[in-house]
User: Fold this.
Amino acid sequence: MRTDAYSYRKFFKYPLKIWKLGKGEKSLVFSKGIEIRQIIMAVLIFGFLFLLKDSINHILPTTLQLAFYAVLPWLIAGGICKSRLDGKRLDRFFIGYFRYLFTKRYSYSSQKSVYQPQMKKAQSYERFQ
Assistant:
């Protein structure tokens, strides 16, 4: 008899978060946690801004540069991660979108893939006697 499978639905329902950095008295605790996807997104945005640093540093005064490079990517990443497209989280939306792009030529009938142009052919039926 087959053993029961573990359901990862509860695990992936909420985003992964970092709740505590360090151990003991010197640890840094976050009451609401920091989402890992927001950290990754902020690093990517910072990298993009770092590529344009010469033109940005030419425009901004020195006092605003630290705020621009430290705070702005974090705020933009937080807004992007909290936004919803079609009622879905951003990562779920893009997973479904790319899955559709790669499998859009097939529809599923009785758990079998059917080539879509085959479904669009005109059907003919024999006369019932």
